[in-house]
TrEMBL record:
<dbReference type="InterPro" id="IPR030379">
    <property type="entry name" value="G_SEPTIN_dom"/>
</dbReference>
<keyword id="KW-0342">GTP-binding</keyword>
<protein>
    <submittedName>
        <fullName>Septin 12</fullName>
    </submittedName>
</protein>
<feature type="domain" description="Septin-type G">
    <location>
        <begin position="1"/>
        <end position="263"/>
    </location>
</feature>
<dbReference type="InterPro" id="IPR027417">
    <property type="entry name" value="P-loop_NTPase"/>
</dbReference>
<comment type="similarity">
    <text>Belongs to the TRAFAC class TrmE-Era-EngA-EngB-Septin-like GTPase superfamily. Septin GTPase family.</text>
</comment>
<dbReference type="InterPro" id="IPR016491">
    <property type="entry name" value="Septin"/>
</dbReference>
<keyword id="KW-0547">Nucleotide-binding</keyword>
<dbReference type="GO" id="GO:0005525">
    <property type="term" value="F:GTP binding"/>
</dbReference>
<dbReference type="Pfam" id="PF00735">
    <property type="entry name" value="Septin"/>
</dbReference>
Length: 309
Protein backbone atom coordinates (compact mmCIF):
# COMPACT_ATOMS: atom_id res chain seq x y z
CA UNK A 1 0.00 0.00 0.00
CA UNK A 2 1.09 3.52 -0.80
CA UNK A 3 1.88 5.15 2.58
CA UNK A 4 1.11 8.65 1.24
CA UNK A 5 -2.45 7.67 0.40
CA UNK A 6 -4.11 9.24 3.44
CA UNK A 7 -2.32 12.54 3.18
CA UNK A 8 -4.52 15.47 2.25
CA UNK A 9 -3.05 17.57 -0.51
CA UNK A 10 -3.13 21.28 0.27
CA UNK A 11 -4.93 22.14 -2.95
CA UNK A 12 -8.67 21.63 -2.97
CA UNK A 13 -8.86 19.77 -6.26
CA UNK A 14 -8.75 16.04 -6.73
CA UNK A 15 -9.08 15.21 -3.04
CA UNK A 16 -10.32 11.66 -2.79
CA UNK A 17 -11.61 10.13 0.39
CA UNK A 18 -10.76 6.52 1.07
CA UNK A 19 -13.65 5.58 3.25
CA UNK A 20 -16.71 7.25 4.75
CA UNK A 21 -15.94 10.31 6.83
CA UNK A 22 -19.48 11.51 7.55
CA UNK A 23 -19.38 15.04 6.19
CA UNK A 24 -23.06 14.89 5.28
CA UNK A 25 -23.89 14.75 8.98
CA UNK A 26 -23.11 18.45 9.15
CA UNK A 27 -26.53 19.07 7.57
CA UNK A 28 -28.22 17.24 10.42
CA UNK A 29 -26.18 19.19 12.93
CA UNK A 30 -27.24 22.47 11.32
CA UNK A 31 -30.87 21.41 11.21
CA UNK A 32 -30.93 20.34 14.85
CA UNK A 33 -29.25 23.57 15.93
CA UNK A 34 -31.64 25.71 13.88
CA UNK A 35 -34.68 23.87 15.22
CA UNK A 36 -33.39 24.51 18.72
CA UNK A 37 -32.47 28.17 18.37
CA UNK A 38 -34.90 29.23 15.63
CA UNK A 39 -34.53 32.09 13.19
CA UNK A 40 -34.68 35.77 13.87
CA UNK A 41 -35.75 38.34 11.37
CA UNK A 42 -36.19 42.08 11.75
CA UNK A 43 -38.21 44.33 9.48
CA UNK A 44 -38.86 48.04 9.69
CA UNK A 45 -41.54 49.96 7.82
CA UNK A 46 -40.76 53.56 6.94
CA UNK A 47 -42.36 56.24 4.81
CA UNK A 48 -44.52 59.26 4.59
CA UNK A 49 -47.18 59.91 7.19
CA UNK A 50 -50.53 58.24 6.58
CA UNK A 51 -49.21 55.82 3.96
CA UNK A 52 -50.46 52.76 5.80
CA UNK A 53 -47.31 51.61 7.62
CA UNK A 54 -49.01 50.65 10.89
CA UNK A 55 -51.74 48.87 8.93
CA UNK A 56 -49.03 46.96 7.02
CA UNK A 57 -47.42 45.80 10.28
CA UNK A 58 -50.78 44.38 11.30
CA UNK A 59 -51.35 42.90 7.85
CA UNK A 60 -48.03 41.07 8.02
CA UNK A 61 -48.85 39.57 11.39
CA UNK A 62 -52.39 38.62 10.56
CA UNK A 63 -51.65 37.25 7.12
CA UNK A 64 -50.47 33.68 6.86
CA UNK A 65 -47.14 34.74 8.33
CA UNK A 66 -48.98 34.35 11.58
CA UNK A 67 -52.67 34.12 12.17
CA UNK A 68 -53.48 36.24 15.18
CA UNK A 69 -56.92 35.72 16.71
CA UNK A 70 -59.14 38.76 16.56
CA UNK A 71 -62.08 39.36 18.82
CA UNK A 72 -65.46 40.49 17.52
CA UNK A 73 -64.91 43.89 19.10
CA UNK A 74 -61.74 44.50 17.10
CA UNK A 75 -62.76 47.79 15.56
CA UNK A 76 -60.40 50.37 16.93
CA UNK A 77 -58.82 52.80 14.51
CA UNK A 78 -55.09 52.86 14.18
CA UNK A 79 -53.81 56.08 15.73
CA UNK A 80 -51.10 58.16 14.09
CA UNK A 81 -47.73 56.69 15.07
CA UNK A 82 -45.68 59.07 17.19
CA UNK A 83 -42.75 56.95 18.28
CA UNK A 84 -40.69 53.97 17.17
CA UNK A 85 -42.48 50.78 18.15
CA UNK A 86 -41.38 47.19 17.76
CA UNK A 87 -43.67 44.18 17.84
CA UNK A 88 -42.26 40.69 18.11
CA UNK A 89 -44.01 37.43 17.44
CA UNK A 90 -42.64 33.95 17.68
CA UNK A 91 -44.10 32.02 14.79
CA UNK A 92 -43.85 28.25 14.63
CA UNK A 93 -44.49 26.09 11.62
CA UNK A 94 -43.64 22.39 11.41
CA UNK A 95 -41.38 22.70 14.41
CA UNK A 96 -39.37 25.61 12.98
CA UNK A 97 -39.46 28.69 15.13
CA UNK A 98 -39.09 32.21 13.82
CA UNK A 99 -38.87 35.34 15.90
CA UNK A 100 -40.22 38.03 13.62
CA UNK A 101 -39.80 41.61 14.80
CA UNK A 102 -41.48 44.40 12.88
CA UNK A 103 -40.65 47.98 13.77
CA UNK A 104 -43.18 50.67 13.02
CA UNK A 105 -41.98 54.25 12.64
CA UNK A 106 -43.69 57.64 12.69
CA UNK A 107 -44.29 58.91 9.19
CA UNK A 108 -42.30 61.80 7.82
CA UNK A 109 -43.57 64.78 5.85
CA UNK A 110 -47.18 65.83 5.69
CA UNK A 111 -50.13 63.53 5.39
CA UNK A 112 -50.11 61.95 1.97
CA UNK A 113 -51.83 63.74 -0.85
CA UNK A 114 -52.82 62.00 -4.00
CA UNK A 115 -49.67 62.86 -5.89
CA UNK A 116 -48.08 59.62 -6.85
CA UNK A 117 -44.53 60.60 -7.62
CA UNK A 118 -41.41 60.27 -5.58
CA UNK A 119 -40.32 63.60 -4.19
CA UNK A 120 -36.68 64.64 -3.66
CA UNK A 121 -37.19 63.82 0.04
CA UNK A 122 -38.23 60.23 -0.76
CA UNK A 123 -35.31 59.76 -3.11
CA UNK A 124 -32.74 61.13 -0.67
CA UNK A 125 -34.25 59.03 2.12
CA UNK A 126 -34.03 55.86 0.04
CA UNK A 127 -30.55 56.70 -1.22
CA UNK A 128 -29.24 56.95 2.35
CA UNK A 129 -31.19 53.97 3.63
CA UNK A 130 -30.09 51.69 0.82
CA UNK A 131 -26.48 52.10 1.98
CA UNK A 132 -27.19 50.78 5.47
CA UNK A 133 -30.04 48.29 5.07
CA UNK A 134 -31.80 46.26 2.39
CA UNK A 135 -34.60 48.42 1.05
CA UNK A 136 -37.70 46.77 -0.40
CA UNK A 137 -39.84 49.58 -1.80
CA UNK A 138 -43.60 49.13 -2.03
CA UNK A 139 -46.46 51.12 -3.47
CA UNK A 140 -48.89 51.54 -0.59
CA UNK A 141 -52.68 51.70 -0.89
CA UNK A 142 -52.56 50.13 -4.32
CA UNK A 143 -56.34 49.81 -4.20
CA UNK A 144 -56.57 53.57 -4.72
CA UNK A 145 -54.88 53.32 -8.13
CA UNK A 146 -56.30 52.10 -11.41
CA UNK A 147 -54.37 49.27 -13.06
CA UNK A 148 -52.89 51.73 -15.56
CA UNK A 149 -51.84 54.09 -12.78
CA UNK A 150 -50.23 51.21 -10.88
CA UNK A 151 -48.22 50.15 -13.93
CA UNK A 152 -47.19 53.70 -14.75
CA UNK A 153 -46.20 54.46 -11.14
CA UNK A 154 -44.16 51.28 -10.97
CA UNK A 155 -42.28 52.10 -14.16
CA UNK A 156 -41.68 55.64 -13.02
CA UNK A 157 -40.24 54.49 -9.68
CA UNK A 158 -37.98 51.94 -11.35
CA UNK A 159 -36.70 54.68 -13.65
CA UNK A 160 -36.17 57.17 -10.82
CA UNK A 161 -34.30 54.63 -8.69
CA UNK A 162 -32.02 53.81 -11.60
CA UNK A 163 -31.46 57.45 -12.52
CA UNK A 164 -30.46 58.29 -8.94
CA UNK A 165 -28.26 55.22 -8.50
CA UNK A 166 -30.38 53.82 -5.67
CA UNK A 167 -29.75 50.12 -5.29
CA UNK A 168 -32.72 48.37 -3.73
CA UNK A 169 -33.07 44.71 -2.76
CA UNK A 170 -32.30 42.31 -4.49
CA UNK A 171 -29.19 44.22 -5.56
CA UNK A 172 -27.78 43.14 -8.94
CA UNK A 173 -24.22 43.25 -7.61
CA UNK A 174 -24.94 40.44 -5.20
CA UNK A 175 -26.49 37.83 -7.47
CA UNK A 176 -24.34 34.78 -6.82
CA UNK A 177 -24.84 32.92 -10.08
CA UNK A 178 -26.94 32.85 -13.25
CA UNK A 179 -29.84 31.05 -11.57
CA UNK A 180 -29.98 33.76 -8.92
CA UNK A 181 -29.84 36.39 -11.62
CA UNK A 182 -32.77 34.89 -13.52
CA UNK A 183 -34.89 34.61 -10.37
CA UNK A 184 -33.93 38.05 -9.07
CA UNK A 185 -34.49 39.71 -12.46
CA UNK A 186 -38.09 38.53 -12.26
CA UNK A 187 -38.40 40.11 -8.82
CA UNK A 188 -36.67 43.30 -9.95
CA UNK A 189 -39.21 43.64 -12.77
CA UNK A 190 -42.01 43.61 -10.22
CA UNK A 191 -40.48 45.95 -7.65
CA UNK A 192 -41.96 48.07 -6.12
CA UNK A 193 -44.76 45.70 -5.14
CA UNK A 194 -48.18 47.32 -5.22
CA UNK A 195 -49.63 46.30 -1.86
CA UNK A 196 -52.83 46.75 0.07
CA UNK A 197 -52.94 46.65 3.84
CA UNK A 198 -55.88 45.62 6.00
CA UNK A 199 -56.25 44.37 9.52
CA UNK A 200 -59.88 43.31 9.35
CA UNK A 201 -61.22 39.99 8.27
CA UNK A 202 -64.28 39.48 6.07
CA UNK A 203 -66.28 36.51 4.95
CA UNK A 204 -65.61 35.61 1.30
CA UNK A 205 -67.00 32.36 -0.14
CA UNK A 206 -67.34 30.91 3.31
CA UNK A 207 -63.76 31.76 4.29
CA UNK A 208 -62.44 34.51 6.48
CA UNK A 209 -60.01 36.66 4.57
CA UNK A 210 -58.08 39.82 5.33
CA UNK A 211 -59.34 42.63 3.17
CA UNK A 212 -60.78 46.08 2.65
CA UNK A 213 -64.50 46.24 2.18
CA UNK A 214 -65.74 48.73 -0.37
CA UNK A 215 -69.13 49.41 -1.87
CA UNK A 216 -68.12 47.31 -4.85
CA UNK A 217 -66.66 44.32 -3.13
CA UNK A 218 -63.80 43.17 -0.96
CA UNK A 219 -60.18 43.77 -1.87
CA UNK A 220 -58.38 40.74 -0.51
CA UNK A 221 -54.83 41.37 0.57
CA UNK A 222 -53.78 37.75 0.18
CA UNK A 223 -55.30 37.29 -3.27
CA UNK A 224 -52.59 37.63 -5.96
CA UNK A 225 -55.27 38.75 -8.42
CA UNK A 226 -56.02 41.76 -6.21
CA UNK A 227 -52.62 43.03 -5.15
CA UNK A 228 -48.97 42.09 -4.74
CA UNK A 229 -48.92 41.66 -0.98
CA UNK A 230 -48.46 37.86 -1.43
CA UNK A 231 -45.33 38.54 -3.53
CA UNK A 232 -43.92 40.79 -0.83
CA UNK A 233 -44.59 38.27 1.93
CA UNK A 234 -43.13 35.41 -0.09
CA UNK A 235 -39.99 37.40 -0.85
CA UNK A 236 -39.48 38.41 2.77
CA UNK A 237 -40.30 35.10 4.38
CA UNK A 238 -40.39 32.19 1.97
CA UNK A 239 -37.70 32.77 -0.63
CA UNK A 240 -35.22 35.44 0.44
CA UNK A 241 -35.18 35.59 4.24
CA UNK A 242 -31.75 34.03 4.61
CA UNK A 243 -30.32 36.08 1.75
CA UNK A 244 -31.65 39.30 3.29
CA UNK A 245 -29.96 38.37 6.55
CA UNK A 246 -26.70 37.40 4.84
CA UNK A 247 -26.49 40.68 2.93
CA UNK A 248 -27.32 42.63 6.08
CA UNK A 249 -24.53 40.85 7.93
CA UNK A 250 -21.88 40.58 5.25
CA UNK A 251 -22.37 43.88 3.48
CA UNK A 252 -24.24 46.44 5.55
CA UNK A 253 -22.99 45.51 8.99
CA UNK A 254 -19.47 45.03 7.66
CA UNK A 255 -19.32 48.49 6.12
CA UNK A 256 -20.77 49.98 9.30
CA UNK A 257 -18.11 48.18 11.33
CA UNK A 258 -15.33 49.42 9.05
CA UNK A 259 -16.65 52.95 9.31
CA UNK A 260 -16.81 52.82 13.10
CA UNK A 261 -13.31 51.36 13.35
CA UNK A 262 -11.98 54.09 11.08
CA UNK A 263 -13.71 56.73 13.17
CA UNK A 264 -12.30 55.35 16.43
CA UNK A 265 -8.84 55.23 14.91
CA UNK A 266 -9.10 58.85 13.84
CA UNK A 267 -10.43 59.91 17.22
CA UNK A 268 -7.60 58.34 19.24
CA UNK A 269 -4.22 60.14 19.49
CA UNK A 270 -1.31 58.32 17.83
CA UNK A 271 0.33 55.86 20.18
CA UNK A 272 3.75 56.91 21.54
CA UNK A 273 5.24 53.67 20.19
CA UNK A 274 4.39 54.71 16.68
CA UNK A 275 1.77 51.99 16.22
CA UNK A 276 -1.77 52.63 15.25
CA UNK A 277 -3.93 52.82 18.34
CA UNK A 278 -5.03 49.37 19.36
CA UNK A 279 -8.70 48.68 19.74
CA UNK A 280 -9.83 46.21 22.29
CA UNK A 281 -12.00 43.92 20.26
CA UNK A 282 -15.55 43.57 21.47
CA UNK A 283 -17.08 40.08 21.36
CA UNK A 284 -18.52 40.88 17.94
CA UNK A 285 -15.17 42.02 16.67
CA UNK A 286 -13.53 38.92 18.02
CA UNK A 287 -15.96 36.84 16.09
CA UNK A 288 -15.20 38.61 12.86
CA UNK A 289 -11.50 38.67 13.52
CA UNK A 290 -11.04 34.98 14.23
CA UNK A 291 -8.26 33.57 12.12
CA UNK A 292 -4.90 34.99 11.24
CA UNK A 293 -5.92 38.50 10.27
CA UNK A 294 -4.52 41.44 12.22
CA UNK A 295 -7.44 42.28 14.46
CA UNK A 296 -6.06 45.63 15.49
CA UNK A 297 -6.48 47.04 12.00
CA UNK A 298 -9.79 47.95 10.46
CA UNK A 299 -10.54 45.91 7.43
CA UNK A 300 -10.56 48.09 4.37
CA UNK A 301 -9.20 47.09 0.95
CA UNK A 302 -8.75 43.42 1.70
CA UNK A 303 -12.30 42.87 2.95
CA UNK A 304 -13.53 39.50 1.69
CA UNK A 305 -17.06 40.83 1.63
CA UNK A 306 -18.87 42.78 -1.02
CA UNK A 307 -18.44 46.49 -0.57
CA UNK A 308 -20.59 49.22 -1.93
CA UNK A 309 -19.37 50.81 -5.11
N1 LIG B 1 -57.29 52.47 0.76
C1 LIG B 1 -56.38 52.06 1.60
N2 LIG B 1 -56.26 52.65 2.80
C2 LIG B 1 -55.32 52.19 3.64
C3 LIG B 1 -54.44 51.13 3.30
N3 LIG B 1 -53.62 50.91 4.34
C4 LIG B 1 -53.97 51.78 5.30
N4 LIG B 1 -55.00 52.56 4.89
C5 LIG B 1 -55.67 53.62 5.65
O1 LIG B 1 -54.83 54.77 5.70
C6 LIG B 1 -54.93 55.45 6.95
C7 LIG B 1 -53.55 55.61 7.60
O2 LIG B 1 -53.05 54.34 7.91
P1 LIG B 1 -51.88 54.09 8.98
O3 LIG B 1 -51.57 52.65 8.93
O4 LIG B 1 -52.23 54.71 10.28
O5 LIG B 1 -50.72 54.96 8.31
P2 LIG B 1 -49.23 55.23 8.87
O6 LIG B 1 -48.33 55.22 7.70
O7 LIG B 1 -48.92 54.33 9.99
O8 LIG B 1 -49.39 56.73 9.39
P3 LIG B 1 -48.42 57.52 10.43
O9 LIG B 1 -48.35 56.70 11.66
O10 LIG B 1 -49.11 58.84 10.63
O11 LIG B 1 -47.12 57.69 9.74
C8 LIG B 1 -55.91 54.60 7.78
O12 LIG B 1 -57.19 55.20 7.70
C9 LIG B 1 -55.90 53.24 7.10
O13 LIG B 1 -57.12 52.55 7.25
C10 LIG B 1 -54.58 50.54 2.00
O14 LIG B 1 -53.87 49.62 1.59
N5 LIG B 1 -55.57 51.05 1.20
MG1 LIG C 1 -48.40 54.65 11.86
Amino acid sequence: EDPTRHRCPSSNVGLELFGYVGIEAVLDQMRIKTMKTGFEFNLMVVGQSGLGKSTMVNTLFKSKVSQKPTGPDYEERIPKTVQLQSVTHVIEEKGVKMKLTVTDTPGFGDQINNENWLRPLDLEFMRRLSKIVNVVPVIAKADTLTLEERAEFKKRIQKDLKAHGISVYPQEDFDDNSDDRILNNKIRDKIPFAVVGADKEHQVNGKRVLGRKTKWGIIEVENPAHCEFPLLRDLLIRSHLQDLKDITHNVHYESYRVQRLNESNLALPPSPLGHSPTLLPSPTLLEVCSGTADCTQPKTESSPFHTWP
